[in-house]
Structure formats: C-alpha cells, structure tokens
Amino acid sequence: MTEADSRIPSPRLSLPVFFFVLLSLFLPTPSEGAGKFTAFEKNYLREEGNPVVVESGFTLIDPEASYFLKIFNNGMNDAPGEKVSASEILLNGVQVVRPSDFNQKTTFFERPISLKEKNILRVKLKGKPGGGITLRIVGTDAVPPQLTLIAPTPKLLTNNPRPAFTLQYKDKNSGVDRKSFRAALNGKEIASLFKVEEEEATYTPDPLPDNAYTFVASIADLAENRTEATVTFQVDATPPATHLVPSDAPGESGWYSLSRLEASDPAGGSGLAELRYQINSDPEGVIRPDPSLLFSERRTLSFPLPEEGKLALLYHAVDRAGNQEAVQQRTVQI
C-alpha cells in the first residue's frame, strides 16, 4: 500500500456520507476558449461529519494531449465563503494534491497532469464544514475535426428535386461539439433542419426549384477549432419540350411549305443532350449539340424536315440531367 492509499480511506468502506457533490460534469465542454477544452469538472462541498472520499470516473478521446488540473478554492463562487484548508486528491492512484497545498488564502492553483483513456479521481476534503472546491481538468487541442461531405457529391447534376444531404465528422482530440454545426444553402441557414447525430448529420429537403446551388457546412470541436466543407451542385427536374415549327400549317390546305422540329430547355435548366426523331418507318435519328458549346448555351436543338411528302413523326428531347419529355406523335404534309 502506498503512502497516498494509506492516507485516503477506500470508498468501499461503509461510512456515513456527509460529503455533498453539488455538480458533476463528465462530458467535455467548450469553456476555456479557443484551443482549450474542459475534459472534467466537478464541484464539491465539505459537509458536517467525518471527511469521506468521493470517487469519479471519466474517459478521454486523446489521453496523449496536454492537460492541467485546475483547483478553485471556494469553488467558482465570487462571494466570500469558507475555503478548504486541506484536501487530498488522487488521480489514477497517484496523489496530485496534498493537504499542505491548501490554506485559507489559497484561491486557485493548477498543475500539469498525465491522463489515461479511462481515469479515476478520488477526492477527500478536510477542514471546517462549508468549504468548497471546484476541480477542472483542461486539455489542449489545436487540430480541427474532420468533416466529410458524403452527399451531394461535387458538381452533381440531378433531376431529383430532393437530393439527400449527408455529412460525417469526427475528432480524435477533444471531441466534436454537435451544437456548433452550421449549414447554409445558397446563403440561407438550414442547420436547424438537419438531424445531427453523434457522427453524422442528415437532411432531405422539400422539393428544390431548378437552380445551381452552393452548400456550405461547418462544425467545431470542443476546443472551438472549426472546419468547413463546400460543394456545388445543380437541380434540374424539368424536362425539355419539342415543337413543330410552325405549329400549324398556313391556310386551310393542311400542307406545310417548310417545317422543322425544335427542342428547347427552360431557363435554369442543365442544357439539352439530344433530340430524337423517327420519320415514317426510317431508323431513329439523333441530333446532339455542338460539343464546343458551353452547357449554358445548349438551349435549343432543331432538325429540318424533308422538303416534301406525308410524314408520320415520333420525337422527343432529353436534357443533361436525364429528364426526358414524353414521346410525341404528329403527321404532317409538306
């Protein structure tokens, strides 16, 4: 048995409990400013009766980080109060604070400590009843969390007006602060619409109008290190339309002198991919845009019909997002 063990009774002994624990926080919290996080915090009050030991356990994500134990005599209370004049604190079986470290004039001190993934803190307050202390373990973390944008994928072009949003995140040091999650779509805040879980945030929107979108998301760890991810994508859920030009034969004869098929993609669309047609029993023909054109310039495609004859036409257009208009049927005489 070590000297430290001999000086602190085992918590397994059946002793009257006069030691009142005011507050226990075992989860890290962002309270020390950028680059710092609180790995453990607990307030204690010395009650009437014999001193007893309170044992607390806590775990860490990164035990190799730099940590300090901060002791606030009289707790975090600014008002005058009874200070602890003696206390013993063991961390993982090692005595880190002795009774001689305390007196009525000591209000705060700190010291570096080494931690493990799983830790046990044993505290025994002495002195007059009414004295209180706060123990806080503060770690250092200068590395932002990892944030991966699973969906939408970069430069996605989709005809689904409800694309799924999925992000995954993790932090190997202080841990992710889920309350820090931020998300914006074309500048509009939408973080409140996400389901933010331990390692993943998801959201499926109501139908979005055809448009180009920029999605920006970010999240911070418990040391306030923030990381950001951005993706651009386009929604085009409106099929193109193909018309016979002119739409009706001039006069009452029912004959056209000249005619053509013309496909168009609406404003905000992704651009035409092809115009498909069949004349009588001939093989299907395909017209595609000039590949040198920008996608935004691929708004129309046309095909001049033969100069004479009675033509049975089948035709439809497809855009770059895969939207396909219904096949149309028309008989014309030229």
Tell me about this structure.
The chain is mostly beta strands. It has one helix spanning 3-7, and strands at 20-25, 36-45, 53-59, 67-73, 86-91, 94-97, 108-113, 118-126, 132-140, 146-151, 156-158, 165-170, 176-185, 188-189, 195-196, 200-203, 211-221, 226-235, 241-245, 260-264, 272-279, 285-287, 300-304, 310-319, 328-333. The strands form 6 sheets. Strands 1-2-9-4-7 form a 5-stranded antiparallel β-sheet, with no helix packed on it. The longest helix is centred in the N-terminal third of the chain and has 5 residues, at 3-7. The radius of gyration is 36 Å and the shape is rod-shaped. Mean pLDDT is 85; it is low at 1-27.
SSE diagram, text form:
Blueprint: H1 3-7, E1 20-25, E2 36-45, E3 53-59, E4 67-73, E5 86-91, E6 94-97, E7 108-113, E8 118-126, E9 132-140, E10 146-151, E11 156-158, E12 165-170, E13 176-185, E14 188-189, E15 195-196, E16 200-203, E17 211-221, E18 226-235, E19 241-245, E20 260-264, E21 272-279, E22 285-287, E23 300-304, E24 310-319, E25 328-333
Parallel strand pairs: 11-18
Antiparallel strand pairs: 1-2, 2-9, 3-8, 4-7, 4-9, 5-6, 5-8, 10-12, 12-16, 13-14, 13-17, 15-16, 17-18, 19-20, 20-23, 21-22, 21-24, 24-25
Biggest sheet architecture: 5 strands, antiparallel
Please tally the helical runs, counting DSSP H or I stretches of 4 or more residues.
1
Straight-line N-to-C gap:
108 Å
Mean pLDDT: 85
How are the strands ordered across the major sheet? 1-2-9-4-7
Series of secondary-structure elements, N-terminal to C-terminal: HEEEEEEEEEEEEEEEEEEEEEEEEE
Task: Say how many strands there are.
Answer: 25
The Cα radius of gyration reads 36 Å
Poorly predicted runs of 5 or more residues:
1-27
User: What structural class do the secondary elements suggest?
Assistant: mainly beta
Q: Please tell me what the overall shape is.
A: rod-shaped
Q: Percentage of helical residues?
A: under 10%
In percent, how much strand structure appears in the residues? over 45%
